[in-house]
Amino acid sequence: MLQGRDLIFVEERGTRYAKPFLFCPELHAHNIAVAQGKQSYTDPSWIRACNARLKAQGINPSAFNTRENAADIYAVAETLGYPTFNYYGVSYGTLLGQYVIAQADRRRPKLRSVILDGVVRPDLDFNLASSHTFSYALRNVFRACAQDRQCHAAYPNLETTFLAIVDRLNRKPAPLTLTIPSSKQTFTTRLDGNAFIAGVVPYLARPYSGESARGSSLPRFIHAASQGNFSWIAESLSDLEPRGAREMYHTVVCARGRSVRLQPSQVLPPPYPQLLPLGLREAEAVNNACDVLQVEQQPPFVYANPQIPTLVLNGSDDPVTPAPYGEAVASNLTTAYVFTFPGVGHGALFAPPGMAAAACVTQIAADFLANPKQAPDSRCLAQVKPAFVVE
């Protein structure tokens, strides 16, 4: 996004624009096979095939890491003739943004300010932490519903209901029909507790999607599932087509192993026992991919140039990068402003128009960009409350 003489870079989960995309169409077939129960989720054969194909094209996966990506940001800014620029990153883009900050004193274009939205910690394996982060977000939703008069009246004991569904599906999986969007092919799979949790995650990450920003439908959907209605979860589980450059995602994750120093339990409360297998599964899948790629390990990340003004945005219901991540990163910066938006998922600036948080986060970001060295006006945040769609 270009605005006047400012340059704002947007990064999402490893998708890059200065280098060739490292797409893996093999992942689509893998996702379908997993959904059909024909292949293990952690089976790395898809990335083995993808990596062999890319290497045959002369692509070296070790050339793609966050340190190099940050250098690319400055190269693009300089090539476009920008003496100064502002940086915005969401999800992986927040990890990249921290590397951009660290290189600020060694590059010609000057980094004026940084916005980190849904913040990744450089010292933590966020895949292994999935059980903890999902549980953290769910607890926030359950607490907010209990404090909302209508939501609590319609869906009491939401936490107990949710966990009972997971336990029941683990004992006796339910049949579920999925539809592949691109081909409209349908097939029946088994919905167990892990699959149910995986299907819930998109409704945490984007809680207001599909409801015209009226509120989160997750409590209503959980109630429907308690009555045996899983049609809503079929929609999220049918999204089997890979998005973004998946091999690059793995190269940047695998190359940062030396930076990971903390265990999830040192950072977040214990997860629900029912969710514990999910984080282990995610970590195993990534570790298997790293064994295939064998990328060169980068030096541990070190914070530098903490004086760069930084705005940190968190969503209270973010299932991937919870607010404590953003708060921890901000504590390493001398000029950082941290705001957490109730009822918001992954990426506060992606809150849909009409949602109370949308106007507030936009106003805070605009105020910050106008004068990054001054705390932005955040009075609107006091008016932002979680909202729920209640039958």
Summarize the structure.
The chain is an alpha/beta fold and 391 residues long. It contains 14 helices and eight strands.
Textual characterization of the structure:
With 391 residues, the chain is an alpha/beta fold. The protein has one domain. 42% of the residues lie in helices and 11% in strands. The chain is built from 14 helices and 8 strands. The protein has helices at 26-35, 45-56, 66-79, 92-102, 130-147, 149-154, 158-171, 193-205, 218-226, 231-237, 246-254, 276-293, 323-330, 356-370; strands spanning 2-3, 6-7, 84-90, 110-117, 174-179, 186-191, 310-315, 336-341. α4 links the parallel β3 (84-90) and β4 (110-117). 46% of the residues are buried. Residues 1-19 have low confidence and may be disordered.
With strands numbered from the N-terminus, the spatial order across the biggest sheet is 3-4-7-8
Q: What average pLDDT do the residues reach?
A: 91
User: Helix/strand-derived class?
Assistant: alpha/beta
The total strand number stands at 8
Helix content: 40-55%
Low-confidence stretches: 1-19
Radius of gyration (CA) equals 21 Å
